[in-house]
Design goal:
With 264 residues, the protein is α+β, with helices and mostly antiparallel strands. The chain has helices spanning 12-20, 32-37, 73-78, 80-85, 87-94, 99-104, 107-113, 120-127, 140-143, 211-219, 223-227, 244-263, and strands at 5-7, 24-26, 45-48, 58-61, 64-68, 130-133, 137-139, 144-146, 149-150, 158-164, 168-175, 182-191, 194-200, 208-209.
């Protein structure tokens, strides 16, 4: 590590002022602190968001579950409102990393970082969530721009994410054993306007919706329909953990399992 200024604002307005003055936002620190230790990141000032109460609320707003940016994974997993109205999201959160990661990592930090193998982006995209920031509201389909890239502007902070409540939903993850990130993760949601399928961990560009699976399942929601969809290897990741062909196969397998789960 190296010397840096540490600031702990108690209000969102104070935090925004500090960040616009050049401070680096610190949420759960699961990525940032590791990057600093490796000297891959060297902010001169850290702005710790952990004491801002308005970023830590979970509430039901009509047909949406609204979760503050600083709510930790463990809290998403255990919260009664989330478990009742969005059990798939609670289950997703319960299987992120290990207990230490779930105790410190935050929803907003994960979504803002947009790691291509992170779990939350698949839920945000599949459910058509809205990302609320200090400046505006961003629809999920406009937010994720590619690997570690989002629509957030300099100094803009996520304050909350509003998740529409689906008819049914499920998240299935085939994980890399050491990191517990997704080699292939699928969030499948039956929404009022149809089936939506978002995939994480598989693409070089990060999270994406699979148009072929969505079209097939909206025509006929069966395991056979999912199995009949050809999963192209183009643009899928190929690394020491799995080939593009293996990931393509796992997308098909997980999609079939997700349909079977939602059919009960």
């Amino acid at each position: 590590m190296y010397a840096f200024n540490y600031q702990r604002p108690s209000s969102l307005q104070e935090a925004s002022t500090l960040i616009h003055s050049g401070g680096q936002a610190l949420a759960g620190g699961q990525t940032l602190l590791a990057s600093m230790k490796l000297r891959l990141s060297s902010p001169e000032s850290l702005v710790d968001l952990s004491q801002i109460a308005e970023l830590q609320e979970i509430k039901l707003d009509g047909q949406h579950v609204v979760i503050g940016a600083m709510v930790k994974h463990a809290q998403v997993a255990s919260n009664a409102t989330v478990r009742q109205h969005l059990p798939a999201l609670a289950d997703l959160a319960a299987h992120i990393g290990d207990k230490q990661v779930r105790a410190m990592g935050t929803l907003g930090g994960s979504v803002a970082n947009n790691d291509p193998s992170a779990c939350y982006p698949s839920a945000v995209l599949a459910l058509g969530a809205n990302i609320h920031t200090t400046e505006r509201v961003i629809a999920a389909h406009d937010f994720f721009l590619g690997m570690f890239s989002t629509a957030l502007e300099a100094g803009e902070l996520i304050t909350a994410i509003s998740f529409p409540i689906p008819k049914k939903a499920v998240y299935l993850k085939f994980k890399q054993q050491a990191s517990r990130f997704a080699l292939v993760g699928i969030f499948m949601a039956q929404m009022p306007d149809g089936v939506r399928v978002a995939i994480t961990g598989a693409s070089q560009q990060g999270v994406f919706r699979h148009a072929g699976l969505e079209a097939a399942l909206n025509h006929s929601f069966t395991v056979q329909s999912a199995a009949a969809v050809t999963i192209e290897e183009t643009d899928l990741n190929h690394d020491i953990h799995a080939s593009a062909a293996y990931r393509a196969h796992m997308i098909s397998v997980q999609a079939q399992r997700a349909v079977k789960h939602l059919l009960g």
